[in-house]
Amino acid sequence: MQWLNQNSGAISALTGILTLLVWLFYAQLLYNGYIRQRRPRIIINRGSGKNLTSLCLISNMSAEAIFVQHIIAVLETEEGEKQLDIVDYQRSGDEEQQYRSHQGPLDSGAYLHVGSFRQILEHLTDHHGLNDDGKEALSRRAYRALEIRVVAIYGSEDNPIGARRRFRLDPEGDDCRLIPDGLDTQRLASRRQRHRIRQWMQEL
What we know:
This protein is of the alpha+beta class and about 200 residues long. It folds into two domains: about 1-35; about 40-204. It contains four helices and twelve strands, in the order ααββββββββαββββα. Strands 3, 4, 7, 9, 10, 11 and 12 form a seven-stranded antiparallel sheet that branches.
């Protein structure tokens, strides 16, 4: 007790420092949890198979709704990249013109499908005049990969966010297998990445 009385000042200072460190630790945990909850999260995936008949699914796993502005399909060929904004789909049928738009809000936990990868590829190749002989052209080895990019506005933010995922096209008979480059969708939300997103929008 005598030693405690003699060193009470130092003990109080040390206790205060330890208490401050504990509070800083918990504050950091709370801040990281808040940032993680506020972080936009868009997932691009394939559904119902692993070939071109698979559906292209876009899911919003963010805490708030997003507004989908652009869905860009990029086909990598031996002659370079060919891209097309597929957020608005329009095709002339036998009797009437089909029109569908995927632009608009997407609630938290909701998803949308923008058609099959075959439909996306056909739409893109038709637009660029690459698909002269029908579906047989889809399995050409000249087509290397198909990348899907999403540009959206998250919550009350002014600057757009983005997501991208690349699928390699592996010819398999008359069809192609879709092989994702990575295990997850690449999230684009940093300052440098948002500058790249604005470049995408200017190129469109």
